[in-house]
């Protein structure tokens, strides 16, 4: 897998004939039935012929001959199942692939129809098909202590994220670069408690970061490295992230190589880069990393719902521009991706705080007109007081003590917002609108304002008993959340958007995996969660770790 990734392949967790370009067979005992089964087909002849099944030798020989993957000979001796090569004519392949695509498309459509029920007839906005539904299980990625918004494309993303959370806290805990010991619950929790980011009301230096120019350059480099496939760039991205975190937390200007080397997470090579930035104001490595493929992958990753693997796969298919994605016959875009392309510039633009506030001031009364007892609050960067916002995050709940809940409210609210011209496109609908815990993603705009841009909007609904956990989680910021989750785990708790749980049993070798979910011990208010974790209550504006 490492070799494949290094040579530009993207690995996908689930077989999708619209996405998969090759199936590589590495085990000698891997029969055609087994492979077909893995791909979700009854027999090998159902696998689209346009997707070759090749032996591992294809990779090994291609690499040893020093050729680029697109020049590797995909025929003859490398075909894993010779019976497939006999029918491997191009027209046959495209017909087969087209059939497979239409079957998949039909399946997706049927599933969506099932989910949409009466919603479809009443909504005027564009209903997106092909987008995975945002169901409660999807939001519960944080269950395992990982971010809920990790790259769903990447089968290993949640593990990287969990590891990043742990390592981030190591940086905050001032551990040395070489110390690889696990600061897990076996260590004295009190000792760690004093060093968690969430314990510090001002996690960054007061009065701004004296090394902001270095942070900016390394962040640019990090963004470029993040667009490259494979474990090696991921490792480098991790190294740069650690260095950036250390620099952000450092109260003094770095002046020398030795100063830089003393920072947690900074080795010789990163220290040299820091010195280059100090001495020249720039970093040659940025030019080197900013290759055409990286620029294109970055462009594609700006499309809503597109992760690194999909972006890389599109690049490998010869696409270079957003226009190419619309015209290339090999690319099948989901409706959400089409919307993402149509409003690419709007969605990638941050909105002024005032615009987010104005939209919320329109939305809240509409929600309260449905049920005045609703709890409706704007979350995310807005609640933290940020001057600009990437999107609008709105949390909805309702105190059930009068016997009523917010069940069904989200659907009604969305219908009214569509009618009011505020919500304009849907990107991901909840699996079941009747659930109390739900998540909706879409686009909105200020109606009756000429030229107003499309903005991303998320609605989250939670049961009242989980309101505190949800408020805490959706307020962020992400690093503050990580820090609280990690502190919770060192104290034997588990924290997610539903609240704080005790009695969680973790796999000793992979602490991100829970063997027993435990019981919720604090969840209705933010204050009780802070208290249980022995952290002084921090109002939202003190939960800021990003200083840009
Ligand atoms: N969140 C998190 N970890 C992530 C992403 C999000 O803990 N990886 C939480 C914290 C913020 C909240 O979800 C809303 O997420 P975003 O809208 O992505 O972030 P934001 O802080 O509101 O920033 P932006 O202004 O970019 O929307
Ligand atoms: Mg936000």
UniProtKB/TrEMBL annotation:
Its main location: nucleus. It is an enzyme of class 2 (transferase). One of its GO terms (molecular function) is DNA binding. DNA polymerase that functions in several pathways of DNA repair. Involved in base excision repair (BER) responsible for repair of lesions that give rise to abasic (AP) sites in DNA. Also contributes to DNA double-strand break repair by non-homologous end joining and homologous recombination. Has both template-dependent and template-independent (terminal transferase) DNA polymerase activities. Has also a 5'-deoxyribose-5-phosphate lyase (dRP lyase) activity. Belongs to the DNA polymerase type-X family. GO terms for biological process: double-strand break repair via nonhomologous end joining. SUPFAM superfamilies: DNA polymerase beta, N-terminal domain-like (SSF47802), Nucleotidyltransferase (SSF81301), PsbU/PolX domain-like (SSF81585). One of its GO terms (cellular component) is nucleus. Keywords: DNA damage, DNA repair, DNA replication, DNA synthesis, DNA-directed DNA polymerase, Metal-binding, Nucleotidyltransferase, Nucleus, Transferase. Pfam families: DNA_pol_B_palm, DNA_pol_B_thumb, DNA_pol_lambd_f, HHH_8. PANTHER family: DNA POLYMERASE LAMBDA (PTHR11276:SF28), DNA POLYMERASE TYPE-X FAMILY MEMBER (PTHR11276). It comes from the Eukaryota. The active site is at residue 273. Residues 1-68 form the BRCT domain. This is DNA polymerase. It is found in: Nucleus. It catalyses: DNA(n) + a 2'-deoxyribonucleoside 5'-triphosphate = DNA(n+1) + diphosphate. Its EC number is 2.7.7.7.
């Amino acid at each position: 897998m490492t070799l494949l990734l290094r040579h530009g392949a993207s690995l996908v967790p689930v077989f999708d004939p619209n996405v998969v370009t090759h199936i590589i067979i590495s085990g000698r005992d891997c029969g055609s039935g087994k492979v077909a089964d893995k791909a979700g087909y009854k027999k090998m002849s159902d696998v689209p012929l346009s997707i070759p099944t090749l032996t591992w030798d294809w990779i090994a020989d291609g690499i040893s001959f020093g050729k680029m993957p697109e020049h590797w000979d995909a025929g003859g001796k490398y075909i894993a199942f010779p019976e497939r090569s006999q029918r491997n004519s191009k027209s046959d392949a495209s017909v087969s692939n087209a059939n497979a695509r239409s079957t998949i498309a039909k399946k997706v459509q049927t599933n969506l129809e099932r989910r949409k029920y009466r919603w479809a007839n009443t909504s005027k906005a564009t209903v997106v098909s092909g987008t995975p539904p945002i169901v409660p299980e999807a939001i519960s990625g944080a269950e395992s202590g990982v971010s809920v918004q990790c790259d769903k494309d990447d089968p290993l993303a949640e593990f990287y994220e969990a590891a990043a959370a742990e390592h981030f806290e190591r940086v905050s805990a001032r551990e040395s670069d070489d110390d690889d010991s696990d600061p897990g619950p076996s260590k004295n929790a009190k000792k760690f408690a004093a060093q968690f980011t969430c314990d510090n009301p001002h996690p960054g230096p007061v009065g701004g970061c004296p090394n902001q120019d270095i942070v900016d350059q390394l962040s640019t480099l990090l963004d470029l490295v993040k667009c490259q496939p494979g474990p090696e760039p991921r490792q480098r991205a991790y190294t740069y992230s650690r260095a950036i975190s250390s620099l952000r937390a450092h109260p003094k200007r770095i002046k020398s190589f030795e100063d830089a080397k003393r920072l947690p997470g900074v080795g010789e090579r990163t220290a040299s880069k820091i010195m280059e930035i100090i001495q020249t104001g720039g970093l040659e490595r940025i030019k080197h990393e900013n290759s055409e493929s990286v620029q294109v992958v970055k462009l594609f990753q700006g499309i809503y719902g597109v992760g690194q693997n999909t972006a890389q796969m599109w690049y490998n298919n010869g696409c270079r521009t957003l226009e190419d994605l619309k015209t290339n016959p090999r690319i099948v875009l989901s409706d959400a991706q089409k919307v993402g392309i149509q409003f690419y510039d709007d969605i990638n633009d941050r909105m002024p705080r005032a615009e987010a506030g104005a939209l919320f001031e329109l939305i809240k009364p509409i929600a309260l007109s449905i049920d005045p007892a609703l709890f409706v609050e704007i979350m995310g960067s807005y609640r933290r007081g940020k001057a600009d916002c990437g999107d609008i995050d709105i949390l909805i709940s309702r105190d059930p003590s009068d016997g009523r809940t917010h069940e069904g409210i989200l659907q009604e609210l969305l219908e009214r917002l569509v009618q009011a011209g505020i919500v304009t496109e849907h990107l991901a609908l909840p699996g079941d609108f009747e659930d109390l815990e739900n998540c909706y993603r879409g686009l909105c705009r200020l109606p009756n304002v000429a030229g107003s841009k499309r903005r991303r909007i998320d609605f989250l609904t939670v049961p009242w008993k989980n309101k505190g956990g949800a408020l805490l989680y959706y307020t962020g910021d992400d690093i503050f959340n990580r820090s609280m989750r990690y502190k919770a785990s060192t104290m034997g708790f588990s924290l997610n958007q539903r609240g704080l749980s005790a009695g969680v049993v973790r796999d000793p070798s992979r602490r991100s995996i829970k063997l027993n979910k435990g019981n919720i011990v604090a969840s209705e208010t933010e204050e009780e969660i802070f208290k249980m974790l022995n952290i002084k209550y921090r109002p939202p504006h003190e939960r800021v770790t990003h200083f840009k």
